From TrEMBL:
One Gene Ontology biological process: nitric oxide catabolic process
Name assigned to this protein: Flavohemoprotein
Organism: Paenibacillus sedimenti
Molecular function as annotated in GO: FAD binding; heme binding; metal ion binding; nitric oxide dioxygenase NAD(P)H activity; oxygen binding; oxygen carrier activity
Gene name linked to the record: hmpA
Region (Reductase): 149-404
Family (UniProt): In the C-terminal section; belongs to the flavoprotein pyridine nucleotide cytochrome reductase family.
Active site annotation, chain numbering: Y95 (charge relay system), E137 (charge relay system)
PROSITE patterns: FAD_FR, GLOBIN
Annotated Globin domain residues: 1-138
Transmembrane segments: none
Amino acid sequence: MLSEKTISIIKSTVPVLEVHGTAITKRFYELLFTGHPELLNVFNHANQKQGKQQTALANAVYAAAQHIDRLEAILPAVKQIAHKHRSLGVKPEHYPIVGQNLLAAIKDVLGEAATEDILQAWAEAYGVIADAFISVEADMYVQAKEQHGGWAEFKPFRVVRKVQESDVTTSFYLVPQDGGAVAAFEPGQYVSVKVEIPGEPNTHIRQYSLSDAPGKPYYRISVKREDTLEERPAGKVSVYLHNHIEEGGVLLLSAPAGAFMLDQADERQVVLISGGVGLTPMVSMLNTLVTANPSRKVTFIHAAQNGNVHAMREHVEELARQHSQVSVYWCYEKPTERDKKEAAYHKEGFIDLAWLQEVVPTQDSAFYFCGPTPFMKAVNGALRAWGVPEADIHYEFFGPAGSL
Protein backbone atom coordinates (compact mmCIF):
# COMPACT_ATOMS: atom_id res chain seq x y z
CA MET A 1 0.00 0.00 0.00
CA LEU A 2 1.13 3.52 -0.73
CA SER A 3 1.35 6.10 2.03
CA GLU A 4 -0.93 9.15 2.05
CA LYS A 5 2.14 11.33 1.47
CA THR A 6 3.12 9.36 -1.66
CA ILE A 7 -0.44 9.47 -3.01
CA SER A 8 -0.60 13.22 -2.41
CA ILE A 9 2.72 13.83 -4.20
CA ILE A 10 1.75 11.67 -7.18
CA LYS A 11 -1.59 13.47 -7.53
CA SER A 12 0.20 16.82 -7.41
CA THR A 13 2.18 15.79 -10.52
CA VAL A 14 -0.96 15.17 -12.64
CA PRO A 15 -0.98 18.69 -14.21
CA VAL A 16 2.74 18.36 -14.98
CA LEU A 17 2.19 15.01 -16.70
CA GLU A 18 -0.63 16.50 -18.76
CA VAL A 19 1.84 19.03 -20.17
CA HIS A 20 5.10 17.05 -20.26
CA GLY A 21 3.91 13.41 -20.44
CA THR A 22 4.83 12.76 -24.07
CA ALA A 23 8.22 14.49 -23.71
CA ILE A 24 8.94 12.25 -20.70
CA THR A 25 7.95 9.06 -22.53
CA LYS A 26 9.90 10.06 -25.63
CA ARG A 27 13.00 10.55 -23.49
CA PHE A 28 12.24 7.29 -21.67
CA TYR A 29 12.38 5.27 -24.91
CA GLU A 30 15.62 7.01 -25.95
CA LEU A 31 17.24 6.03 -22.65
CA LEU A 32 15.74 2.54 -22.67
CA PHE A 33 16.94 1.57 -26.14
CA THR A 34 20.38 3.16 -25.65
CA GLY A 35 20.97 1.14 -22.50
CA HIS A 36 19.10 -2.01 -23.56
CA PRO A 37 19.12 -2.32 -27.37
CA GLU A 38 17.97 -5.95 -27.03
CA LEU A 39 14.50 -4.60 -26.20
CA LEU A 40 14.23 -3.36 -29.80
CA ASN A 41 13.38 -7.02 -30.50
CA VAL A 42 10.15 -6.57 -28.52
CA PHE A 43 8.87 -3.08 -29.36
CA ASN A 44 7.15 -2.07 -32.62
CA HIS A 45 9.58 0.30 -34.35
CA ALA A 46 6.89 1.81 -36.60
CA ASN A 47 4.79 2.80 -33.58
CA GLN A 48 7.91 4.38 -32.06
CA LYS A 49 8.60 6.44 -35.19
CA GLN A 50 4.98 7.61 -35.45
CA GLY A 51 4.89 8.55 -31.76
CA LYS A 52 2.00 6.17 -31.01
CA GLN A 53 3.90 4.20 -28.38
CA GLN A 54 5.06 7.35 -26.60
CA THR A 55 1.52 8.75 -26.53
CA ALA A 56 0.05 5.47 -25.29
CA LEU A 57 2.59 5.24 -22.46
CA ALA A 58 2.06 8.91 -21.55
CA ASN A 59 -1.70 8.27 -21.34
CA ALA A 60 -1.13 5.20 -19.17
CA VAL A 61 1.20 7.06 -16.79
CA TYR A 62 -1.25 9.97 -16.62
CA ALA A 63 -4.16 7.61 -15.83
CA ALA A 64 -2.11 5.85 -13.15
CA ALA A 65 -1.31 9.19 -11.51
CA GLN A 66 -4.95 10.32 -11.65
CA HIS A 67 -6.18 7.10 -10.06
CA ILE A 68 -3.24 6.36 -7.76
CA ASP A 69 -5.56 6.27 -4.72
CA ARG A 70 -7.89 3.72 -6.38
CA LEU A 71 -5.87 1.69 -8.85
CA GLU A 72 -8.77 -0.74 -9.24
CA ALA A 73 -10.28 1.91 -11.55
CA ILE A 74 -7.57 1.25 -14.13
CA LEU A 75 -7.66 -2.56 -13.78
CA PRO A 76 -9.43 -3.06 -17.17
CA ALA A 77 -6.65 -1.04 -18.83
CA VAL A 78 -4.01 -3.03 -16.92
CA LYS A 79 -5.53 -6.29 -18.20
CA GLN A 80 -5.67 -5.02 -21.77
CA ILE A 81 -1.99 -3.99 -21.67
CA ALA A 82 -1.06 -7.22 -19.85
CA HIS A 83 -2.56 -9.29 -22.67
CA LYS A 84 -0.30 -7.39 -25.08
CA HIS A 85 2.73 -7.85 -22.81
CA ARG A 86 2.12 -11.61 -22.49
CA SER A 87 1.80 -11.96 -26.26
CA LEU A 88 5.09 -10.06 -26.74
CA GLY A 89 7.02 -12.03 -24.13
CA VAL A 90 7.46 -9.22 -21.57
CA LYS A 91 8.95 -10.70 -18.38
CA PRO A 92 9.19 -9.66 -14.70
CA GLU A 93 12.88 -8.83 -15.14
CA HIS A 94 11.98 -6.13 -17.68
CA TYR A 95 10.06 -4.05 -15.12
CA PRO A 96 13.01 -2.78 -13.02
CA ILE A 97 14.74 -1.70 -16.27
CA VAL A 98 11.62 0.22 -17.33
CA GLY A 99 11.25 1.81 -13.88
CA GLN A 100 14.87 2.95 -13.75
CA ASN A 101 14.63 4.59 -17.18
CA LEU A 102 11.22 6.15 -16.51
CA LEU A 103 12.54 7.87 -13.39
CA ALA A 104 15.64 9.02 -15.28
CA ALA A 105 13.40 10.45 -18.02
CA ILE A 106 11.24 12.32 -15.47
CA LYS A 107 14.40 13.81 -13.98
CA ASP A 108 15.83 14.74 -17.41
CA VAL A 109 12.65 16.45 -18.65
CA LEU A 110 11.53 18.17 -15.45
CA GLY A 111 15.01 19.16 -14.26
CA GLU A 112 15.04 20.83 -10.85
CA ALA A 113 11.24 20.52 -10.61
CA ALA A 114 11.77 16.75 -10.15
CA THR A 115 12.62 16.91 -6.46
CA GLU A 116 13.83 13.95 -4.44
CA ASP A 117 10.36 13.66 -2.87
CA ILE A 118 8.71 13.45 -6.30
CA LEU A 119 11.21 10.91 -7.62
CA GLN A 120 10.89 8.81 -4.47
CA ALA A 121 7.08 8.91 -4.65
CA TRP A 122 7.12 7.84 -8.30
CA ALA A 123 9.59 5.04 -7.52
CA GLU A 124 7.19 3.72 -4.86
CA ALA A 125 4.15 4.12 -7.11
CA TYR A 126 5.88 2.45 -10.03
CA GLY A 127 6.76 -0.50 -7.81
CA VAL A 128 3.10 -1.01 -6.88
CA ILE A 129 1.92 -0.66 -10.50
CA ALA A 130 4.68 -2.98 -11.78
CA ASP A 131 3.74 -5.61 -9.19
CA ALA A 132 0.13 -5.45 -10.41
CA PHE A 133 1.24 -6.05 -14.02
CA ILE A 134 3.64 -8.84 -13.06
CA SER A 135 0.95 -10.61 -11.05
CA VAL A 136 -1.71 -10.38 -13.80
CA GLU A 137 0.77 -11.41 -16.50
CA ALA A 138 2.05 -14.39 -14.46
CA ASP A 139 -1.50 -15.78 -14.39
CA MET A 140 -1.83 -15.17 -18.13
CA TYR A 141 1.41 -17.04 -18.90
CA VAL A 142 0.24 -20.03 -16.85
CA GLN A 143 -3.19 -20.02 -18.51
CA ALA A 144 -1.67 -19.76 -22.01
CA LYS A 145 0.72 -22.65 -21.38
CA GLU A 146 -1.55 -25.02 -19.48
CA GLN A 147 -4.67 -24.82 -21.68
CA HIS A 148 -5.26 -27.71 -24.10
CA GLY A 149 -2.85 -27.19 -27.00
CA GLY A 150 -1.27 -24.25 -25.17
CA TRP A 151 2.33 -23.10 -25.09
CA ALA A 152 4.62 -20.47 -23.62
CA GLU A 153 6.17 -17.62 -25.62
CA PHE A 154 6.44 -18.39 -29.37
CA LYS A 155 5.68 -21.61 -31.25
CA PRO A 156 6.26 -22.46 -34.94
CA PHE A 157 3.17 -22.72 -37.17
CA ARG A 158 3.15 -23.84 -40.80
CA VAL A 159 1.23 -21.95 -43.48
CA VAL A 160 -1.11 -24.48 -45.10
CA ARG A 161 -3.09 -22.01 -47.23
CA LYS A 162 -2.50 -18.48 -48.47
CA VAL A 163 -5.60 -16.77 -49.91
CA GLN A 164 -5.84 -13.31 -51.46
CA GLU A 165 -8.98 -11.67 -50.06
CA SER A 166 -8.74 -8.28 -51.84
CA ASP A 167 -6.20 -6.09 -53.63
CA VAL A 168 -4.48 -5.44 -50.28
CA THR A 169 -5.50 -8.21 -47.86
CA THR A 170 -4.28 -11.82 -47.73
CA SER A 171 -5.27 -14.61 -45.34
CA PHE A 172 -2.81 -17.13 -43.92
CA TYR A 173 -4.10 -20.45 -42.57
CA LEU A 174 -1.75 -21.75 -39.87
CA VAL A 175 -1.36 -25.12 -38.13
CA PRO A 176 1.11 -26.15 -35.40
CA GLN A 177 4.32 -27.42 -37.00
CA ASP A 178 4.51 -30.18 -34.37
CA GLY A 179 1.10 -31.54 -35.39
CA GLY A 180 -0.35 -30.75 -31.96
CA ALA A 181 -3.76 -29.37 -31.01
CA VAL A 182 -4.85 -25.82 -31.82
CA ALA A 183 -5.47 -23.94 -28.55
CA ALA A 184 -8.87 -22.32 -28.08
CA PHE A 185 -9.45 -18.57 -28.21
CA GLU A 186 -12.29 -16.09 -27.88
CA PRO A 187 -13.71 -14.34 -30.98
CA GLY A 188 -12.00 -10.93 -31.14
CA GLN A 189 -8.61 -12.06 -29.83
CA TYR A 190 -5.28 -11.88 -31.66
CA VAL A 191 -1.93 -13.63 -31.92
CA SER A 192 1.51 -12.05 -32.05
CA VAL A 193 3.62 -13.02 -35.05
CA LYS A 194 7.42 -12.81 -34.68
CA VAL A 195 9.52 -12.63 -37.84
CA GLU A 196 13.18 -12.25 -38.70
CA ILE A 197 13.44 -10.24 -41.91
CA PRO A 198 16.69 -10.70 -43.88
CA GLY A 199 18.85 -7.59 -43.57
CA GLU A 200 17.01 -6.30 -40.48
CA PRO A 201 19.09 -6.11 -37.26
CA ASN A 202 16.13 -6.89 -34.98
CA THR A 203 13.23 -9.30 -34.91
CA HIS A 204 9.79 -7.76 -35.45
CA ILE A 205 6.60 -8.65 -33.61
CA ARG A 206 3.11 -7.68 -34.76
CA GLN A 207 -0.37 -8.53 -33.51
CA TYR A 208 -2.97 -9.83 -35.96
CA SER A 209 -6.57 -10.60 -35.08
CA LEU A 210 -7.72 -14.17 -35.60
CA SER A 211 -10.21 -13.86 -38.45
CA ASP A 212 -12.09 -17.16 -38.25
CA ALA A 213 -14.18 -18.77 -35.52
CA PRO A 214 -12.59 -20.84 -32.74
CA GLY A 215 -12.78 -24.61 -32.92
CA LYS A 216 -11.22 -24.96 -36.39
CA PRO A 217 -8.14 -27.14 -36.99
CA TYR A 218 -6.19 -23.97 -37.89
CA TYR A 219 -5.71 -20.32 -36.98
CA ARG A 220 -6.37 -17.74 -39.67
CA ILE A 221 -4.90 -14.25 -39.79
CA SER A 222 -5.87 -11.81 -42.55
CA VAL A 223 -3.15 -9.22 -43.12
CA LYS A 224 -3.47 -5.92 -44.95
CA ARG A 225 -0.34 -4.99 -46.89
CA GLU A 226 0.60 -1.55 -45.56
CA ASP A 227 2.21 0.21 -48.51
CA THR A 228 4.12 3.49 -48.24
CA LEU A 229 1.97 6.56 -47.63
CA GLU A 230 2.93 10.21 -47.17
CA GLU A 231 2.30 10.01 -43.43
CA ARG A 232 4.10 6.70 -42.81
CA PRO A 233 6.56 4.22 -44.34
CA ALA A 234 5.52 0.79 -45.61
CA GLY A 235 4.74 -1.84 -43.00
CA LYS A 236 7.84 -4.05 -42.84
CA VAL A 237 6.07 -7.11 -41.47
CA SER A 238 2.91 -6.93 -43.57
CA VAL A 239 4.91 -6.46 -46.79
CA TYR A 240 7.25 -9.32 -45.80
CA LEU A 241 4.32 -11.66 -45.13
CA HIS A 242 2.64 -10.80 -48.43
CA ASN A 243 5.78 -11.01 -50.56
CA HIS A 244 7.87 -13.75 -48.94
CA ILE A 245 5.73 -16.12 -46.84
CA GLU A 246 4.19 -18.81 -49.03
CA GLU A 247 2.35 -22.05 -48.37
CA GLY A 248 4.72 -24.36 -46.51
CA GLY A 249 6.46 -21.44 -44.81
CA VAL A 250 6.75 -21.21 -41.02
CA LEU A 251 5.75 -18.36 -38.69
CA LEU A 252 6.34 -18.00 -34.94
CA LEU A 253 3.10 -17.32 -33.04
CA SER A 254 2.22 -16.41 -29.47
CA ALA A 255 -0.77 -18.08 -27.85
CA PRO A 256 -3.99 -16.10 -28.49
CA ALA A 257 -4.41 -12.98 -26.35
CA GLY A 258 -6.57 -9.90 -26.01
CA ALA A 259 -9.32 -8.37 -23.90
CA PHE A 260 -11.59 -7.51 -26.89
CA MET A 261 -13.93 -10.50 -26.80
CA LEU A 262 -17.46 -11.25 -27.92
CA ASP A 263 -19.86 -11.68 -24.97
CA GLN A 264 -21.63 -14.85 -26.03
CA ALA A 265 -23.90 -14.89 -22.96
CA ASP A 266 -25.69 -11.70 -24.13
CA GLU A 267 -28.81 -12.69 -26.12
CA ARG A 268 -29.57 -9.23 -27.50
CA GLN A 269 -28.88 -8.13 -31.06
CA VAL A 270 -25.21 -7.60 -31.78
CA VAL A 271 -23.95 -4.91 -34.16
CA LEU A 272 -20.50 -5.48 -35.67
CA ILE A 273 -19.00 -2.33 -37.26
CA SER A 274 -15.64 -2.34 -39.00
CA GLY A 275 -13.46 -0.10 -41.10
CA GLY A 276 -10.76 -1.46 -43.44
CA VAL A 277 -8.84 -4.40 -42.02
CA GLY A 278 -10.70 -3.86 -38.73
CA LEU A 279 -13.17 -6.38 -40.10
CA THR A 280 -10.92 -9.32 -39.15
CA PRO A 281 -12.10 -9.71 -35.52
CA MET A 282 -15.67 -8.96 -36.69
CA VAL A 283 -15.62 -11.86 -39.15
CA SER A 284 -14.40 -14.12 -36.34
CA MET A 285 -17.34 -12.94 -34.22
CA LEU A 286 -19.82 -13.35 -37.10
CA ASN A 287 -18.60 -16.85 -37.97
CA THR A 288 -18.98 -17.78 -34.30
CA LEU A 289 -22.45 -16.28 -33.86
CA VAL A 290 -24.11 -18.03 -36.80
CA THR A 291 -23.12 -21.46 -35.45
CA ALA A 292 -22.94 -21.00 -31.66
CA ASN A 293 -25.97 -18.71 -31.27
CA PRO A 294 -28.09 -18.93 -34.44
CA SER A 295 -31.11 -17.21 -32.87
CA ARG A 296 -29.19 -14.00 -32.08
CA LYS A 297 -29.75 -11.19 -34.55
CA VAL A 298 -26.59 -9.74 -36.11
CA THR A 299 -26.14 -6.51 -38.05
CA PHE A 300 -22.79 -6.49 -39.86
CA ILE A 301 -21.63 -3.07 -41.12
CA HIS A 302 -18.37 -2.58 -42.97
CA ALA A 303 -16.73 0.57 -44.31
CA ALA A 304 -14.11 0.38 -47.07
CA GLN A 305 -12.63 2.74 -49.63
CA ASN A 306 -14.21 0.71 -52.43
CA GLY A 307 -14.96 -2.81 -53.63
CA ASN A 308 -11.37 -3.49 -54.74
CA VAL A 309 -10.09 -3.38 -51.15
CA HIS A 310 -13.18 -4.91 -49.52
CA ALA A 311 -12.05 -8.27 -48.15
CA MET A 312 -14.31 -11.26 -47.43
CA ARG A 313 -17.38 -9.61 -48.93
CA GLU A 314 -18.61 -12.75 -50.67
CA HIS A 315 -18.17 -14.83 -47.51
CA VAL A 316 -20.19 -12.41 -45.35
CA GLU A 317 -22.95 -12.08 -47.98
CA GLU A 318 -23.17 -15.86 -48.26
CA LEU A 319 -23.64 -16.12 -44.49
CA ALA A 320 -26.43 -13.54 -44.70
CA ARG A 321 -28.13 -15.59 -47.45
CA GLN A 322 -27.89 -18.75 -45.35
CA HIS A 323 -28.91 -17.17 -42.03
CA SER A 324 -31.97 -14.91 -41.97
CA GLN A 325 -30.93 -13.36 -38.64
CA VAL A 326 -27.90 -11.72 -40.30
CA SER A 327 -28.16 -8.32 -42.04
CA VAL A 328 -25.22 -6.77 -43.88
CA TYR A 329 -24.51 -3.21 -45.02
CA TRP A 330 -21.56 -1.74 -46.92
CA CYS A 331 -20.35 1.87 -46.81
CA TYR A 332 -17.80 2.90 -49.48
CA GLU A 333 -15.89 6.14 -49.12
CA LYS A 334 -14.85 6.36 -52.79
CA PRO A 335 -16.78 3.74 -54.81
CA THR A 336 -15.37 2.80 -58.20
CA GLU A 337 -17.41 3.09 -61.39
CA ARG A 338 -17.88 -0.67 -61.22
CA ASP A 339 -19.16 -0.40 -57.64
CA LYS A 340 -21.69 2.22 -58.79
CA LYS A 341 -22.75 0.20 -61.81
CA GLU A 342 -23.31 -2.94 -59.75
CA ALA A 343 -24.96 -1.04 -56.84
CA ALA A 344 -22.41 -2.83 -54.69
CA TYR A 345 -22.81 -0.69 -51.56
CA HIS A 346 -25.53 0.83 -49.39
CA LYS A 347 -23.99 4.20 -48.52
CA GLU A 348 -21.36 6.44 -50.09
CA GLY A 349 -19.04 8.47 -47.85
CA PHE A 350 -18.74 7.75 -44.14
CA ILE A 351 -20.77 5.99 -41.48
CA ASP A 352 -22.82 8.54 -39.51
CA LEU A 353 -25.51 8.48 -36.84
CA ALA A 354 -28.44 9.11 -39.18
CA TRP A 355 -27.52 6.10 -41.31
CA LEU A 356 -26.81 3.89 -38.28
CA GLN A 357 -30.30 4.69 -36.99
CA GLU A 358 -31.72 3.62 -40.35
CA VAL A 359 -29.97 0.25 -40.54
CA VAL A 360 -29.75 -0.77 -36.86
CA PRO A 361 -33.23 -1.75 -35.59
CA THR A 362 -32.62 -0.73 -31.96
CA GLN A 363 -29.98 0.97 -29.86
CA ASP A 364 -30.64 -1.72 -27.22
CA SER A 365 -27.86 -3.80 -28.77
CA ALA A 366 -24.29 -4.79 -28.07
CA PHE A 367 -21.99 -2.77 -30.33
CA TYR A 368 -18.49 -3.93 -31.31
CA PHE A 369 -16.26 -1.92 -33.62
CA CYS A 370 -12.69 -1.88 -34.90
CA GLY A 371 -10.74 0.02 -37.54
CA PRO A 372 -8.48 3.05 -38.01
CA THR A 373 -8.56 5.53 -35.12
CA PRO A 374 -10.46 8.34 -37.00
CA PHE A 375 -13.10 5.76 -38.00
CA MET A 376 -13.43 4.56 -34.41
CA LYS A 377 -13.74 8.11 -33.09
CA ALA A 378 -16.59 8.75 -35.53
CA VAL A 379 -18.41 5.53 -34.63
CA ASN A 380 -17.89 6.04 -30.90
CA GLY A 381 -19.17 9.62 -31.16
CA ALA A 382 -22.26 8.52 -33.11
CA LEU A 383 -23.13 5.77 -30.62
CA ARG A 384 -22.75 8.08 -27.63
CA ALA A 385 -24.84 10.77 -29.35
CA TRP A 386 -27.51 8.09 -29.84
CA GLY A 387 -27.46 7.40 -26.12
CA VAL A 388 -25.95 3.91 -26.27
CA PRO A 389 -24.72 3.06 -22.74
CA GLU A 390 -20.97 2.78 -22.27
CA ALA A 391 -21.38 -0.85 -21.14
CA ASP A 392 -22.73 -1.74 -24.61
CA ILE A 393 -19.83 -0.12 -26.52
CA HIS A 394 -16.83 -2.40 -27.14
CA TYR A 395 -13.82 -1.58 -29.32
CA GLU A 396 -10.24 -2.56 -30.09
CA PHE A 397 -7.27 -0.48 -31.18
CA PHE A 398 -4.76 -1.87 -33.63
CA GLY A 399 -1.39 -1.19 -32.01
CA PRO A 400 -0.95 0.90 -28.84
CA ALA A 401 -4.16 1.98 -27.11
CA GLY A 402 -5.24 5.43 -28.18
CA SER A 403 -8.01 7.68 -26.94
CA LEU A 404 -11.50 8.07 -28.39
